[in-house]
Amino acid sequence: MILVTGATGFVGNKIMKICNDVVAAPSLRNASEEQVRRIIEESGADTIVHTAAISDIGACEADSEASYIANVQIPCFIAKAAEGRKLVCFSSDQVYSGLEDDGPYTEENVKPANIYAEHKLEMEQRVLDICPDAVMLRAEWMYDYYLKKPNYYMNIINAKESVAFSSMQYRGITYVKEVAENIEKVISLPGGSYNFGSETDKSMYDITKEFVSALGLDIQVNDAPTRHNLWMDCSKAKKYGVVFSSVSEALLQCAEDNGRESK
């Protein structure tokens, strides 16, 4: 059985819908170490997938203490309570946000450039110290048809006149359905950190132009100022069968799944 934290959130909710033999954890917000331990012990789960977090970069900058509690302290409590259970934690591609080279980035070299990224990297390191067989997923910007939280797909289909993305920024974005579909394979991964998501050799500007054209949307795609790449090499996880569609293919699949045919 899989215990899912953040089960009502963007990623956790999709895992609950797609994966088999899952149970939702109650909210862990500001939970004590003993409360976390009791939740895990009473769940009857042999696997924990931890998706709960404060993932808004601005919110983490504004309240670093809350970010630390949610993004470092709670995962450490979970790791201490895991006691032989398989633990999977969602980290972020933001751990590469301060690197000076263009990428694509492999797992070895990291340099966070914001508080959220710093806390995610500290979480990875501390959890792996406690549970060496835990799996840290450096997830990309994820999307779906989802009304509760802005994401790339919703930004495009809801755009009124124009959108702007940089022709000088390379970044993977991932259909959250494929994230959930890969969880069973993820559980079998050896302990460590893994880049996790769709890959691309196209800029965000080119990806968006192609997607807008394919859907026949009447919006202008403008070239935005240069932004730092968040471009990952996901071959490490791929060797173990964790495979995603390309960014362009997955976007079209998401559109089709949500009743939008490409032109």
Written description of the protein model:
With 263 residues, the chain is an alpha/beta fold. It has a domain of 181 residues: Rossmann fold. Helices cover 40% and strands 16% of the residues. The strands form 3 sheets. The protein has a 6-stranded parallel beta sheet with strand order 2-1-3-4-5-9, with helices on both faces. A two-stranded parallel sheet has the order 6-8. The model has no long low-confidence stretch (mean pLDDT 96).
Entry keywords:
about 260 residues, 11 helices, alpha/beta
Please state the structural category: alpha/beta
Distance between the termini: 42 Å
Query: What Rg is obtained from the alpha carbons, in whole angstroms?
Result: 18 Å
**How large is the count of helical segments?**
11
Largest sheet: 6 strands, parallel
How do the strands of the widest beta sheet line up side by side?
A: 2-1-3-4-5-9
The percent range for helix content is 25-40%
Please identify which CATH superfamily of one domain we are dealing with: NAD(P)-binding Rossmann-like Domain
Estimate the global geometry from the Cα principal axes: globular
Content of β-strand? 15-25%
